[in-house]
From TrEMBL:
EC number: 2.4.2.17
Domain ATP phosphoribosyltransferase catalytic: 53-211
Function: Catalyzes the condensation of ATP and 5-phosphoribose 1-diphosphate to form N'-(5'-phosphoribosyl)-ATP (PR-ATP). Has a crucial role in the pathway because the rate of histidine biosynthesis seems to be controlled primarily by regulation of HisG enzymatic activity.
Catalysis performed (reactions): 1-(5-phospho-beta-D-ribosyl)-ATP + diphosphate = 5-phospho-alpha-D-ribose 1-diphosphate + ATP
Annotated pathway: Amino-acid biosynthesis; L-histidine biosynthesis; L-histidine from 5-phospho-alpha-D-ribose 1-diphosphate: step 1/9
Protein name, per record: ATP phosphoribosyltransferase
Domain Histidine biosynthesis HisG C-terminal: 217-289
Family: Belongs to the ATP phosphoribosyltransferase family. Long subfamily.
């Protein structure tokens, strides 16, 4: 490390606290966020972390006060900041897709976007909502509202724009999705100034590799099994893999050791198939990082 060289790095709160802690820990860091003091501990002297809301972090990256940080694509769009995304980390909730959706009550008279004319929409992302309405040439009243907005429709508003993963919360409040405004994901974002500094550029890109590798490993697992030569062709047809599986012949036998990496959801479906074919000694094991 160069004397005094540090990366000023933004960490968003508060709902992302636990998944971000886990992501850094899976990437090999000792990492802890103290929400009461807004302090972040990380066992890397070259990282100086700043804890704040995503809407605060994004403009600080753009202005060069922070070198980089973790923010969502929705925050980038809402704050209209110009940053450079060097790694897309997807949803920090493995297996779930985060969407920003416009929803209305099941029994609402609002059946199409045109029916929103003159209606009241509540949301925590008013700028994105206004842009969406303008693009679709709809005149409606947009009000900022934070908290459990689902419970406020239809009593206080005709519709809402809100985040959803499974749609369960919307259904609980008898709401249905009318339109998806955008899909959200978490990104590692930096500014142009930071990338012009060779040391900072290398440090940020290295961090991106580790975080992306840890994020992929949350959804993937390793799979090892023994396969005879007779069943090899059939096994390889059903084995998903990031690349072709590694096949090693066992000494003095007509059997092979097959090693691959696959999505955990795929693995749960293919293990019974592998067993029925005749594969033996099937072992699924966790991964720390998947770097491709």
């Amino acid at each position: 490390m160069r004397q005094g060289k540090k990366i000023k790095f933004g960490i968003p709160g508060w709902t992302l606290k636990e998944p971000i802690e886990k992501l850094f820990q899976d990437a090999g860091y000792e990492f802890k966020i103290n929400e009461k003091t807004s302090a972040v501990f990380v066992d890397d002297p070259e990282l100086d972390c700043f804890f704040a809301r995503g809407k605060e972090v994004a403009p600080l990256i753009e202005r060069g006060i922070l070198d980089g940080g973790i923010i969502s694509k929705v925050v980038i769009a809402e704050t209209k900041t110009k940053v450079i995304e060097i790694a897309d980390l997807g949803s920090l909730y493995p297996g779930l897709e985060t969407r920003l959706a416009l929803a209305v009550p099941f029994k609402s008279s609002i059946k199409t976007l045109k029916n929103l004319k003159g209606k009241k929409i509540i949301t925590r992302v008013p700028e994105i909502t206004k842009t969406f309405l303008k693009r679709n040439k709809i005149s409606a009243r947009v009000e900022f509202s934070d908290g459990t907005n689902e419970s406020r429709v239809p009593t206080f508003a005709d519709s809402l724009v809100e985040f959803t993963n499974t749609g369960a919360t919307l259904k609980f409040y008898n709401l249905k999705i009318l339109e998806v405004l955008m899909k959200d994901s978490i990104v590692l974002a930096v500014n142009e100034k930071s990338l012009k500094d060779k040391w900072k550029k290398r440090k940020l890109e290295d961090l991106a590799i580790l975080l992306r590798g840890a994020r992929l490993a949350q959804e993937y697992a390793g799979l090892m099994l023994h396969v005879s030569n007779d069943m090899m062709e059939e096994v390889l047809k059903i084995l998903p893999a990031l690349k072709k599986p590694t096949v090693t012949q066992l000494r003095g036998e007509n059997w092979f050791d097959v090693l691959t990496v696959a999505n955990k959801k795929e693995i749960r479906n293919i293990i019974p198939k592998l067993k029925k074919i005749g594969s033996t000694d099937i072992v699924e094991f966790p991964l720390n990082k998947v770097v491709i």
